[in-house]
Amino acid sequence: AQKITQTQPGMFVQEKEAVTLDCTYDTSDPSYGLFWYKQPSSGEMIFLIYQGSYDQQNATEGRYSLNFQKARKSANLVISASQLGDSAMYFCAMREGGGNQFYFGTGTSLTVIP
Amino acid sequence: DAGITQSPRHKVTETGTPVTLRCHQTENHRYMYWYRQDPGHGLRLIHYSYGVKDTDKGEVSDGYSVSRSKTEDFLLTLESATSSQTSVYFCAISVFQGAGNTEAFFGQGTRLTVV
Question: How far is CA B100 from the centre of its chain?
Fold first, then answer.
């Protein structure tokens, strides 16, 4: 079974609107971390946000927030007030507490329309 | 950038030739990883290392070997390159950030083309 599933290969959003990128995960480890990375067309991988499995509140970093629904095993990324520079690939990832590997989803390509 | 450097950044090689990619870090982090990125597959783990001379396989390790003789260097070798190994290769390190957060930092990537 896939550890990380991103079901949206591509998304479009109007500039200044909010957008939600979906991510579901699969683990039996009670301790884990969830991450989102951004990959612009230049190719580098940029860390955006982290959510720990025991964190009581949803993580936020500026315009990024993580909608963490533990019972549903989902960790959706919400980008508010989209900007043209948000156009990129976005990857969801997980690290299980008992392991040393990071598991990545297949990514979502976001295009922000002026 | 967490002091990670990959070399070369771009390489074109012929089928059947051996190829070595280098990942260098400057901060003595214990864990290092090699991923490949392909459209529709995201990032898939090839091998990782948890210390000098300590390595383990990831999900797509066939056709690849690694070595780590020094903390700062993690080498990925394609023993006999095939066209299916045309990909973008990323090196990463994991860094403990506190409060249970261990984050992955990535190198710039190496674009490898096997012709």
Answer: 25
How far does chain A reach from its first CA to its final CA, in angstroms? 38
- Residue in B10, B103, B108, B110 to test binding to A, most A beta-carbons within 10 Å: B103
pLDDT digits (tens, 9 = 90+) for B31-68: 999 999 998 889 999 999 999 999 999 999 999 999 99
Angle CA A65–B36–A60, to nearest 5: 10
Strands (E) in chain A, as ranges, are 4-5, 10-14, 19-21, 24-25, 32-39, 46-52, 60-61, 64-69, 74-79, 88-96, 102-104, 108-113
DSSP A95: E
Set of chain A residues whose Cβ sits within 8 Å of the Cβ of B108: 43-44
A112, β-bridge pairs: A13
pLDDT-based confidence at residue B2 (cuts at 50, 70, 90): low
CB contact under 8 A, B42 and A104: yes
